[in-house]
Specification:
Layout (H helix, E strand, L loop, with lengths): L15 H11 L2 H23 L5 E6 L6 H16 L12 E2 L6 E5 L12 E5 H8 L4 E2 L3 E3 L9 E7 L15 E9 L3 H5 L8 E8 L14 E3 L2 H10 L6 E4 L6 H9 L5 E6 L2 H13 L5 E5 L24 E7 L17 H4 L2 H15 E11 L8 H10 L3 E3 L18 H6 L1 E3 L14 H7 L4 E8 L1
Parallel strand pairs: 4-7, 11-12, 11-14, 12-13, 14-15
Antiparallel strand pairs: 1-3, 1-10, 2-3, 4-6, 5-9, 7-8, 8-9, 15-18, 16-18, 17-18
Keywords: Methyltransferase, RNA-binding, S-adenosyl-L-methionine, Transferase
InterPro entries: MeTrfase_RsmB-F_NOP2_cat (IPR049560), MeTrfase_RsmB-F_NOP2_dom (IPR001678), PUA (IPR002478), PUA-like_sf (IPR015947), PUA_sf (IPR036974), RCMT (IPR023267), RsmB/NOL1/NOP2-like_CS (IPR018314), SAM-dependent_MTases_sf (IPR029063)
Protein name: SAM-dependent MTase RsmB/NOP-type domain-containing protein
């Protein structure tokens, strides 16, 4: 990747009030005093730029509770070679590398942005589908919002992502704010997508020449590999669950971290997964089944109410008495402003600011449910101070029984200045800050070094309860 090509997309498009709010976060007094206004502004602009682009590698969590990492790596190599049979033979095979410090992670480089010619036939997908395509997915039919009038299966089309959700479903062309994500072959006629009794399912366009090339994992070794962002895998290791323990995952859907916790315990012990939404609970159970994990018990429940002093008749499920769990993971609902690629967010400032009060309610329940001597890990996939470092400062002053603990592995940067935490406290936090290394595209840097820094925006804090 050449540094001149780093920003092929415009910076993430946010409501002006949200941009202003984030700018104040990244240019807060403590940061300005530490790095100066120029560097602070530069980091903020890099953040806005990198959020609209995908990370430079794909991270896969391997089911090392079922097979050794190297066996899984070789099987994956074989599977991905089969994918290539249809494409041009002179392409080099995909390089799959184990992560040097995380024993159940495989890394695959993402090739992009590539020079791809646009075609005259344009197909438009919604923003969520567009983001998935940038991370290696094909276009699934439900994501298609517009297509050429006479499109037939087998036609080549250029795929564009509708940034603001303004394209009318079923349109034949769209002049609004859109970005090009690559070329593909239609797998369905236009009529099969839009003129149907039941909503169309399955792959609508198979991507053959994407702007960012990474393998599609659709149906690839489902029990052996699980697509997961690197910081999300780090969370499980930081929690460090031990065989035989009872662990609570408070906001568990879709279950990636739940399954990881169970796998790290060798499936010995009990992992209780809670989520408020019924079909998300089904998804957790499905994932557990696919990965052959027996120790997971999933319940539909609002975690803010998961602790109760009145013992219930139903022995198994929530609510639970205080001090029921050895470890608690609170991967909190958040504003998600660290997700990548994300080209546009229509969220208002009010929506973004609605999360901290909910996070505190969950935190209070988490502390009560945790045994003395137990570990609580708090994480988010956002970049604000109010949902990250400020929550840590609040927790430390609200719960004298909590103390910050070192994290292993610690591959992100430290916590961000601005919440009044001491340098020692900030060093114990782990914040994945892709803006800090964005555009220093040192192609000589190893895949792992790039993978550790060019991630989604993410935050992890680890507490011990005494």
């Amino acid at each position: 990747m050449h540094s001149g090509e780093m920003s092929v997309f415009p910076k993430i498009s946010l409501k002006p009030e949200v941009t202003g709010y984030l700018r104040n976060v990244f240019l807060n007094k403590e940061v300005l005093a530490a790095v100066g206004p120029q560097e602070a502004e530069s980091r903020f602009q890099k953040l806005l730029a990198c959020l609209s682009h995908p990370p430079s590698s794909t991270c896969v969590r391997a089911s090392t509770h079922l097979a050794p990492l190297e066996d899984i790596r070789l099987s994956l190599e074989e599977e991905l070679k089969k994918q290539k049979c249809g494409s041009s033979a002179e392409e080099p095979s995909v390089q799959i590398a184990p992560h040097p410090r995380i024993t159940d992670v495989l890394l695959l480089p993402v090739d992009g942005p590539r020079a791809v010619e646009r075609l005259s036939s344009e197909l438009v997908v919604d923003a969520q589908c567009g983001s998935a395509v940038l991370r290696g997915a094909h276009v699934f039919a439900p994501g298609i919002v517009a297509s050429p009038k006479y499109m037939k299966a087998g036609d080549m089309v250029s795929v564009f992502s509708d940034l603001e959700g303004r394209c009318t479903r079923g349109a034949t062309r769209f002049q609004g704010n859109k970005v090009f994500v690559g070329n593909g072959v239609a797998e369905m006629d236009r009529s099969a997508i839009f003129v149907t009794e039941t909503p169309a399912r399955g792959v609508g366009v198979r991507m053959v020449d994407p702007l960012y090339k990474s393998p599609s994992f659709d149906g690839v070794l489902p029990s052996m590999v699980f697509l997961q962002n690197l910081p999300s895998v780090v969370v499980g290791h930081v929690l460090a669950p031990q065989p035989g323990e009872r662990i609570l995952d408070m906001c568990a859907a879709p279950g990636g971290k739940t399954c990881h916790i169970a796998a790290l315990m060798g499936d010995k012990g009990e992992v209780v997964a809670l989520d408020r939404i019924r079909n998300k609970i089904d998804r957790i159970r499905q994932n557990a089944q696919t990965l052959s994990l027996q120790s997971i018990k999933a319940f539909r429940f609002n975690s803010t109410q998961a602790v109760s002093d009145e013992p219930t008749q139903e022995a198994e499920g929530p609510p639970f008495p205080p001090e029921s769990f050895d470890r608690v993971l609170l991967d909190a609902p958040c504003s998600g402003l660290g997700q990548r690629p994300n080209m546009a967010s229509t969220w208002s400032l009010k929506e973004i600011c609605s999360y901290p009060p909910l996070q505190r309610k969950l935190f209070q329940a988490a502390v009560r449910l945790l045994k003395k001597g137990g570990v609580l890990v708090y994480s988010t996939c956002t970049v604000t101070l109010s949902e990250n470092e400020e929550q840590v400062a609040w927790a430390l002053s609200t719960f004298p029984c909590l103390s910050l603990q070192p994290q292993e592995p610690h591959i992100g940067s430290e916590g961000m200045l601005g919440a009044g935490l001491s340098p020692e406290q900030l060093r114990l936090l782990q914040r994945f800050s892709p803006e800090l290394s964005w555009e220093q595209t040192d192609t000589a840097a190893s895949l792992a070094r790039r993978a550790d820094t060019d991630t989604i925006g993410f935050f992890i804090a680890k507490f011990l309860k005494t």
